[in-house]
Structure formats: C-alpha cells, structure tokens
Amino acid sequence: MPMLFSSLVPNKNLHNLSIAELNTKILEYNEGELTNTEAILVQTGTFTGRSPDDKFFVNDNLTQNTIDWGGFNHQINENHYQKLKADMIAFANTHILYSRDMFASTAKKHQLNLRIFSQTAYHNLFAANMFIQPDDSQLNSFIPEYTIIHLPTFFANPEYHGTKNKNFSVFNLTEKIILVGGTAYTGEIKKGIFSIFNFILPQKDVLSLHSSAVKSQNGETALLIGLSGTGKTTLSSDPNRTFIGDDEIAWDEKGIFNLEGGCYAKTINLDQNNEPLIWNAIKKNALIENCTFFPNTNVIDYTNTSISQNTRVSYKLSHLPKISNNEYENHPKHIIFLTADAFGVLPPISKLTHKQAIEQFLIGYTAKLAGTEMGVKEPKPTFSPCFGAPFMPLHPLKYAKILANKLEKHKPTVWLINTGWIGGSYGVGNRISISTTRSFINDILNNNFDKATFKTEEFFDFQIPTENISQGNEIIFQEDIWKDKTLYALKIKELRSLFDKVISQFSI
C-alpha cells in the first residue's frame, strides 16, 4: 500500500525501522549481500560518486541575494521545482518508501531535525549510520524541519524540469526540502545536509568546515581540513586519540562540534595494518559500497577497483573504540590543511602564518582523486575554495572572514600537509606513505615542533621543520629528491603561478 506521500506522511510500517529490520529488508529484496564480517555490500549503479554539476538551488526571496550563484551553485526557478516535486510525489505514490527521523549536529542549539524518505532500505541504513539517532522520547515528539526525498529510479526530464541531466539534487531552502533523483550514490544525501549547514551556520557567524577533528590525550583538539580523498578519515582514526568527527565539523563561540553521527570512509586499498580502526569498524550494520568479493567468497577485495575507485563504507561512530560523546569540544590548538599535491612539489609538512592560512583556505588546492566525482579517472589538480566548493552556497570570503576572526581570537597553529606525491609529479613520483604522514600528525598534536628549527621554503615562504621528531630523521625536502631538478623548478613555478592567479580573485 503506497504511503500518503503527497502530505509527506510516512508509512508507519516502514518508518524508523530498527537497524536489524533494515538489514533484513536489504537482504530480502536483494539490495545487497552479506559479507564475512556481517557488513552489507551494495552497488550504487551508474553513479559511484557525487555529481556536483547537477546540484540546484531554487532562486527565491531567501536565496536570491545570499547564494553565490555560479560555479557549483546552479539556479532553478520555482516553476520548474514545483513540476519536479509534483512528479516525484506522483512517482512516490506508486511505491513503498522507507522513512527515518534523525538529528544532525551534536550541538543542540544548531541541531537540525531531518526526515529522510528513501526508495531502498540501504539508503535508509546509510542515513541511520551517518546522522544522530534520537531516543524514544525524542522520536515521540519529533517534528521534522528539513525533508530529504531520495528516489534513485525517478529520472528528470531536463527540458520540462529545468535540470541539466536526468539525475539531480535540488534544494528549496524556503520549503526546507531536498529532492534527489536519478542517482543511487548515497553521498548525495550526506553532502546535501552539509550544504544546508553551510548556508545556515555562517549567517550566524558559525564556521562550517569540510574537516575531521580529533582530541589528543592532553585534551587539545585539532582540525584536519581537506577535500575528499586527502586523508581526513584515515588520519583522524587513531587509537591514541579521541575521535570527534571525520568530515563535517563546525566551530562557534563555545568550541567545535560534529555535524554527523557516523563515518563515510574510502576503502580503496584498505589495509588492516595501516588503517586498523576503519578495518575493524567494517562489521555488522556497516554499509559497503561498490566493492567486490574475492572469487567464490564473501570476503571483500579492497584492491579491486573494477566498479569504482571511490569504494566506500559508512558506519556509526560507535563502531570506533574511542569517540567523543560531548556536545562540544575545545577550540582547536592546531589546524591542519590536507592537500594531495599531484605536482609533487609541495613540502610534506610546513607551518603557515595566519595570513598564509587564509590564502590556502581560499585557494583550496589539491588533486581531485579518482572516483570522488563522476568522470574523474586519475588525480587532477583542482582549486576548491574553502576545501569544499561543491558544498558551499555562500561566497568563499564569507567563510574565510569567519576563519580569520577565529584565528585571531584563538591563535591556533596552522599547518599544511601534503598527502600526495613526492620526488616527482603523479605518474613519476611516489605517494607519500600513510606512516610518514601519521608521524607528522603525531608530532603536531604532541606539540613536538614547539622547539624545532624551521627552514623557509623558497617559492611559497612556508616554514618547514628540519626534523621529523617522532621518526628521528630529517624532513624530506622535495628539491633534494627530484631527479630532474630543472623539471622540479618548472613545476613549482607553475604551481606558484596558479596559486597567485587563484588568490588574486579575492580581496583579502
């Protein structure tokens, strides 16, 4: 019996199912397969990554003069939106949909009440993993504020509905509705809510960041800011530290807080020794995407990228051994920008002045890694302001100005870590090892560089520590290990020129 979707009333039989019930539905309806760890493996079909160019905001009185139109912030008019919503409702009324009520944000003053409608049980499980579960008393009085409607097998008619393609994510910030269709990629749900926060919070002078966060044993916190694939989840998953969040963090006058209730980790080449916390989190109730089994087994082959390089797993924070259960954590002592440099010229680690930090935040340089967005087959240098341009509806300077004020007030130390290539560009050099990068993170969070000596890098004026304290050896200097010194000089000048071109677009 179809749900009464026209009034957004859930089918009570499929509303807020338990995780066990969802797992049963996924297997019963052949949406996924059970793995040897009791996690569930699903395939998302045509779309195995986000499609940021198919994201639209309704242009109305609320958004007309607030959204930074252009780039990834595409407009759709009210008429097209209403046609799309009406057709989705008509489609939904011929289907049974799962629905779920969840919170987003650990900070109660910024918490959003979400109601997620999904066409499949596994998307409902994804939402259960990624957001915060209300308790029974909260569910009894739950009033949804934002509604997400996700119909992977509903396809738009671009000419009639005003979209670019058959797949879409459309936001009506006045109605507080997100429409997602034509794609089964679960990340569209997660990043849809992040985009909402990035519209709301900065207008309250609260900084929302594409960042993970950790707390060291001495209670000091650190933010690890970067684009997808630069190492946020991997580097923040450490048994010696308290895990705060892996991808979406906000910072207000009280401190930092997590916007999510779970992790969405890349699993390509996942290794038990290098990433034990993620490896051990892939157990019952975890949801794995677009991986394959070893032949004739139900054991995942994390090296197989035949379906996608953007293989993923979602799991609750409770799957990790040491997590923050606090509403807030302290203001950050350290801020670490993560960049996967495909040019292979940036230092593996460097310290930034606050002015340089704002510039790097606006430049948002990294290599867009294969699979994180549709059509990306190999690392591609990109400049994504605020390290998250596809999710930032406001002008980048809005976020940068809030960051600048917080740097001035709280005075964290800011670092830039290259998790990309050394000794040569992509295809020639080597990707820096996780163990080496972890040693840098350890030294930063243990304040081991406080008495270190630093060398000024010639082209960017970054300060490079001369010793890797925890490993007891010298820091790698790119110019020392490139075999072709002439090519190195050309590449670093090229990147410096690109940095100058990007930063010149902003008045800071």
Could you please describe the fold and organization of this structure?
The protein has 508 residues and is of the alpha+beta class. It folds into 2 domains: 5-29 and 51-204, Phosphoenolpyruvate Carboxykinase, domain 1 (3-Layer(aba) Sandwich); 207-262 and 325-503, Alpha-Beta Complex (Phosphoenolpyruvate Carboxykinase, domain 3). It is 25% helix and 25% strand. The chain is built from 13 helices and 30 strands. The strands form 8 sheets. Strands 10, 11, 12, 13, 14, 20, 21 and 24 form an 8-stranded mixed beta sheet that branches. Strands 4-3-8-9-7-6-5 form a 7-stranded mixed beta sheet, sandwiched between helices. Strand 17 and strand 18 form a beta hairpin. Helix 1 (19-28) runs antiparallel to helix 3 (121-130) and helix 9 (354-363) packs antiparallel against helix 10 (396-410). The longest helix is centred in the C-terminal third of the chain and has 19 residues, at 485-503. The radius of gyration is 22 Å and the shape is globular. The N and C termini lie far apart (58 Å).
Oligomer: single chain
**Proportion of helical residues:** 25-40%
Overall pLDDT metric? 94
- What are the segments in which pLDDT stays under 50 over at least 5 consecutive residues? 1-5
Taking the alpha carbons of the first and last residues, their distance comes to 58 Å
Quantity of strands, as a count: 30
Biggest pleated-sheet summary:
8 strands, mixed
